[in-house]
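Task 17 of the worksheet. Students: predict the tertiary structure of the chain below and write it out as structure tokens. Keep your answer in the requested format; marks are given for formatting as well as content.
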Amino acid sequence: MSHLYNSIEPNVIDDEMVQKAIEEQYPEDKRKLAEREDINFKNVTELQLSFRNILQIDNLWQFENLTKLQLDNNVIEKIEALDSLVHLVWLDLSFNNIEVIEGLDTLVKLQDLSLYNNRISKIEHMDMLQELQIFSIGKNNLTTLQDVIYLRRFKNLRTLNLIGNPLCDDEQYTLFVVAHLPDLVYLDFRLVCDTMREVAVLKYQDLTELLESEEAQALAQLKEKQAKQKELEYHKTAFVEYLNGSFLFDSMYAEDTEAAKLTCLPGVGELLQAYRKEFVSVCENLFNYGLKEYENREAEVSDFYKSLHEALTANQQEGRKIILDFENRKKRRLDEIHNASSYDIAESKRAKYKEDILQLSEALMTLEMLIADHLEEQIKDFKENIAVTASTLIENVKGMMTQCRDLENRHHEKLLEICIMTLEKSVKNELDKDLPADVQMLLVDKTTIVDAVNASHGIRLLKIDKRESNILSNTYRWQASVTEKAFQNEIDRNRNRVKEIIQYIDHLQEELDNVEILEPMQACKTAPDRDGCLFMPELPGILQVEGITSSIPP
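Model answer:
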């Protein structure tokens, strides 16, 4: 269909086009109303832009809650600009000029995808569509059966349409697809029967078993990678990532070319090995300490919020009791006002009830003030405890990093001694073996070798300082974040509670104001009027309209 549009000027997706498309989706009787109103694109869940000669997908970012999108029968050449449509479940791009499957990475909720009648030659770039259930890619340029194997990753795929592709001409096409997609229910609009499935599985058993083995291995590797990533994230929250091994030590030497040259000097290899062992041991001690302190910090925060919750729960129960007692009396009070035997009695009862509402307001506000004061004290204590925890962590981290620096300083001194001693032997031609040319260049004089060793020493100290600074910065940020969050949560809670109380009291007052007072009529005199009929004496104005009684001045 798309190929018929070549002689027509292509369109772009603009606000006018989508506005018109949305209006057309309304029933006939509501369309005029839709035309007069401003439509909020964020509220639109379905959009049909078929047969509009669209060349390029654009201007759809506003439809962030879209679940269904039809872009079929256009002249679209590239799948793009769909990143914001993260809630999309159904997407139709059939009858276009698309050559490559791409631009779908964010559509993780997509269940139904149609790319029917395009120019696609390879199934690819769909890894994120794990919810895919229906996939139509018939009448494209797929030539090899191996493309079908890519679809094995979609465990929810039940309906597949490939009809019209060159690969369908292969006499083994159907059996190959059914064998490699064992959970498929419908293929090319036909039900996959059990007999066909059995034949397919038997025919391609060797290939599918090999694939299953490879997939199981890949899955195991993925799970291992995810477990390591999860573990790393845990270490990061404890501020001690990569300290459970030689990472820091290795990073100190990774870019230090001068240090690498010096390892061939007599005795440096053994010296470096001993240094590495001691340094890594300190790092592992810091790592274990960091994890333990993280658990302690988490427990401290958890205990704080638990005590906070207990205090709030007790306060809320007391508040509910006060409100329940009031609500149990409320109907009786309102009925007494409504059915009072006189206006004065009603007003007296109204005033008394109004006073009760005021007392209720004061009781609830007092209760809130008490819990707010109590929580404020708890949060202050919490802040002090967190400060002590952070201070202890910082002090111990500094102590362990000082151990690392001391090890580096001792290593530097011993390395310098070896270098100077080697220089002296080199001058006297007393070396047991020839040294590489780049090392001999460092041994030309004492100044050169000392400068090289000092430069390497400075690089390593900088790495240690940077890692220490990283831990301390994270600790300070954690301290500020956890205390600020506690204070802000309480501010928000208090404001919301006061607002709730005010709204409740206003509601009670409004109920009271809406109570009508029925002023009873005086007894009718039974004296007949001149026509012999009973008459009613004049009373202070009582007007009754449609069952609603209201007072009117006499």
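Marker's comment: The chain has two domains: 2-219, 250-513. Confidence is low (pLDDT under 50) at residues 1-5, 521-554.
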